[in-house]
Amino acid sequence: CHNMDPKLPFFHVEDLVMHLNHLYIYFLARQLTAQMMQNPQILAALQERLDDLVGTSTGYIESLPKVVKRRVNALKNLQVKCAQIEAKFYEEVHELERKYAALYQPLFDKRCDIINATYEPTEEECEWKVDDDEEISDEMKEKAKLEEEKKDEEKEDPKGIPEFWLTVFKNVDLLSDMQMEFVTLYLFALTTCAIRLNKCHFFTLEFHFEPNEYFTNELLTKTYKMRSEPDESDPFSFDGPEIMGCTGCQIDWKKGKNVTLKTIKKKQKHKGRGTVRTVTKTVPNDSFFNFFSPPEGNGGLLHTILTADFEIGHFLRERIIPRSVLYFTGEAIEDDDDDYDEEGEEADDEVSNFMASF
C-alpha cells in the first residue's frame, strides 16, 4: 500500500515505519547522551553495568574437550608473551619520543619568544607560501593591505601575539566544560605551555605565567603517570601505554582572589521562632584552575571524572601544545571535525534524507 497522490512523494508504508523507528532511536540516543553529560552519575552507572558485562562467558569454551582447552591455554600463554614484547616496543617508542622532544624544544622556545615579544622574526621567517585555494586577486590583496595599514595607524603596535593561548583554549571544544569564562579573565597572564617527558613514563604539562593579581606562582604543573607494561592480573587488557594517575600542584592564591571558591548567601528560617537569618558559606566553584587539583579516591563517579581529566591531558600533550598555532588559526579545528565518527554522520544523513522526503 502506498501513496497515490502525485503531489506527495512516493514511499512504501514499510519504509515509512522503518525510518520512523530509526528516527525515534536516533533522537532517544541524542536525549540519553545529553542526560549523561549533564549527570555524571548516569554515565558512571552505565559504565559499571558495561564493565559487568565484559568477559561474560557464553559457555562455549567450557564445553570444549579437555585436550582442546589445553591447546587454548597454550595460545593464551603465547598471547601474554606477545603483550610483553609489545611493552618493550612502547618502551623504545617512549625513548624515541624523549630523543625527538629535545630536537623540538628549540623550535618551541622560539615560538614562545615570538608570542611574548622577546624575539621578532625576520622577513624570511615570516614568508608563507599561500595554497592555490587561498590565492586572492591583486585587487583584493591591495585592498586588504590598505585596510591593514589603516588599522595599524588607529592603534598602538601590539607586542608579540596578544591573547595567543587564550584564543587557542577558546577554540578547543574539549575544554569548553572547564568554564572558559574564567579562562577569559585569568589566562591573559599565561605566557606558554610546555610538555616534559620523564624517563619513567611520566609526562608533565607546564603552564608558565607572568606576574598577575591572582596568584604568586610563575609555574603550574600537572603530572600524569603512565603504565606501559601489561597488568599481571589482567595481561590481555594491555593495549599500549595508559594513564594510571595524575597529580596537580598547589596554587598560591592572593587574598580574596581564589577563583576555585565562591561565597554564597542562604536564608535560614528558625523552626520555632520563625525568624530568618542570612548565612554565608564558601563553596567550590567551577574553574579552569580545578584542573590542577584532581580528585582522589575510588568509585564509579570519580573514575568517570578522572577519565575525562586524562582525555584532556592526553589531548593537550598530543595535539594542542605541539600544534598550538593551528588551533590559534582554526586550521587544526577543521582537522578535528573531519575525525568525527562516520556512524554518527550516517545517522545525521539518514535523518536529513528522511525529513527531506516530506
From TrEMBL:
Residue segments, region Disordered: 130-156, 335-358
Record's GO cellular component terms: nucleus
Basic and acidic residues bias spans: 138-156
Any one GO molecular-function label of the UniProt entry: cyclin binding
Gene Ontology biological process terms, A to Z: nucleosome assembly; spermatogenesis
Protein's UniProt name: Nucleosome assembly protein 1-like 1
Described function: Acts as a chaperone for the linker histone to facilitate deposition of histone B4 onto linker DNA. Required for both remodeling of sperm chromatin into nucleosomes, and linker histone binding to nucleosome core dimers. Plays a role in tissue-specific gene regulation. Required for primitive hemopoiesis, acting upstream of tal1/scl.
Subcellular location(s) of the protein: Nucleus
Compositionally biased tracts (Acidic residues): 335-351
Recorded superkingdom: Eukaryota
Short name of one Pfam family: NAP
Keywords of this entry: Differentiation, Nucleus, Phosphoprotein, Spermatogenesis
Protein family per UniProt: Belongs to the nucleosome assembly protein (NAP) family.
Quaternary organization: Forms homomultimers. Interacts with histone B4. Interacts with the B-type cyclins ccnb1 and ccnb2.
